[in-house]
Amino acid sequence: MGFDSLTIKRIGKRKGPINDAAYVWCGLNALVSLHHPVVSVIVDGNTVIDQQSGYLIVANSSAYARNLQLVPEANPSNKELVLGFLPKAKHQHELIKLTRMMQHKPAGLPLQYFSGNQIALTLHYPSYPLQVDGDYFRNRDIQVGTTIEFSIHPEPIRVLVPPGYCIQSTAIKSA
Fold first, then answer.
1. Helix crossing, 20-32 with 91-103: angle to 10°?
2. Contact in structure between 38 and 124 (CB atoms under 8 Å)
3. Among the listed residues 7, 53, 13, the one whose alpha carbon sits nearest the alpha carbon of residue 30
4. Is the pTM of this model over 0.85?
5. Per CATH, is 3-151 categorized as 2.60.200.40?
6. Sign (positive or negative) of CA dihedral 68, 72, 76, 81
7. Does the structure show a pLDDT above 90 at 108?
């Protein structure tokens, strides 16, 4: 929740093709109107954030956001989630992220990290868009007073493949 989800919300409202210019325009609009959510967060039963404003990311992989390493300790093999929180995030933090992304370098922002199996996030103010796996859920902003719970599923998620669907692999031959 933060600049990224505001940008994705604006892109989701667009009609027509989405290209680089659309991302830049929507990103600039999001940056101008940027306000971060006020949240409380409980990780495995312990309150770690109590009604603070800031940028949030919950992930189980450090690969989120290219090379920025916003949650460097996140690893699907660890069977836990990592919450990255940047308290009192400012516009300049987003500009730093953009610059670092273009340089293919870690963001280096002073995020606070918390990890655990269950994360409960309560939104206090204002209603806010939530980005999940790069997608914004149209017209479903998280409302004030809502608690969102994140947890690791104990079993692998089954992926169903339709009958007759064939996955082909190609081998690269060396000369």
1. 150
2. yes
3. 7
4. no
5. yes
6. negative
7. no
